[in-house]
Specification:
The complex is a heterodimer of chains A (147) and B (134).
Chain A (H helix, E strand, L loop, with lengths): L11 H16 L19 E5 L3 E7 L9 E5 L2 E8 L8 E5 L4 E8 L4 E11 L2 E8 L12
Antiparallel strand pairs in A: 1-2, 2-8, 3-4, 4-6, 7-8
Chain B lengths: L1 H8 L1 H8 L13 E5 L3 E7 L8 E6 L2 E7 L9 E5 L5 E7 L10 E5 L2 E7 L15
Helix pairs in contact in B: 1-2
Classes of the chains: A mainly beta (147), B mainly beta (134).
């Protein structure tokens, strides 16, 4: 008898949802293989990864963390960042929105194969954790002189 | 060669094409917590990468507008591999009701977390009335 509050059946949103499903079906969305360690979009913290010939840069958009509580480890080419962001909710108040992540998190990032796990550098500034991993010397581009 | 010329005429073109998180045409709506106690409304938001200089908070005709631009040190020749964050701008806006005192908003930014305290007008804050015993 009672439908979901957000599910406007038969309305405009339902049409969009149906169109979305049809497109997914047409393009075979469900059959696309994704990386085995990938996580759903919207996981905390959001991550950006970029690379240069010399290094790999990982940015974690993790506001309000205590850097001391972070656990960053690297094994082969797997970088793991684990930590906790506990947001203390207050009693005796009325919450209208509660969108900020609270709790434990762990993210694992597959890095390119040629990173040097001994040369890792991490900085925390303005809520962004920036991890730099140098690539192995041997794999960096070298200019070869013609004699 | 043609690529070099186009980059020279439009220096933004290269960085935009290379860095999806350098886009500024679409602002992100950051996560917010909003709650109310007896003194007013408290708003907390995660805006990592925004420093105090790049944050603007405006109140215009009862509309609160918060805008922040991230400043991240990115190596010049960075090639993006993966991006959850595809913009360098955060923005959110809320309509404030009349009982809130927009002239007395307090803002605090620490480690990418913005906290706004919007107090209620003094005359509208709850008062305890002492019962006089004669």
């Amino acid at each position: 008898m009672f439908g979901s509050l957000t599910n406007f059946e038969g309305g405009l949103f339902d049409d969009f949802r149906r169109m979305h499903k049809e497109l997914d079906h047409a393009f075979g969305y469900m059959n696309w293989p994704t990386a085995i360690r990938s996580v759903a979009r919207g996981s905390f913290p959001p991550i950006n990864v970029g690379a240069t010939p010399e290094q790999v840069d990982v940015y974690l958009f993790a506001a309000g963390l205590d850097p001391k509580t972070l656990d960053i480890s690297i094994q082969q080419n797997l970088l793991t960042i684990a930590g906790t962001r506990q947001i203390t909710t207050q009693d005796q108040v009325v919450y209208y929105r509660n969108e900020r992540f609270s709790g434990e998190f762990r993210r694992v990032i597959s890095l390119p194969d040629d990173v040097d796990s001994n040369k890792v550098d991490a900085k925390y500034r303005d809520g962004i954790l920036h991890i730099t991993i140098r690539r192995q010397e041997a794999s960096q581009p070298r200019r070869i002189e013609i004699k | 060669m043609s690529q070099q010329t186009s980059n020279a005429t439009n220096p933004q073109a290269k960085s935009k094409a290379l860095n999806p998180w350098e886009h500024d045409d679409l602002a992100l709506r950051p996560p917010v917590n909003i709650f109310e106690d007896t003194n007013g409304i408290i708003l907390e938001s995660d805006i990592p990468g925004v420093s105090r200089e790049n944050l603007t908070i405006q109140v215009d005709k009862g509309r609160l507008l918060v805008e922040g631009k991230t400043h991240i040190d990115i190596p010049q020749n960075l090639e993006p591999l993966y991006a959850d964050i595809r913009s360098n701008r955060y923005q959110f806006s809320f309509a404030l009701s009349n009982e809130l005192d927009t002239g007395k908003i307090q803002a605090n930014l620490k480690d990418g977390v913005l906290e706004l305290r919007i107090p209620k007008r003094v005359e509208l804050q709850p008062r305890k009335i002492e019962v006089q015993v004669s």
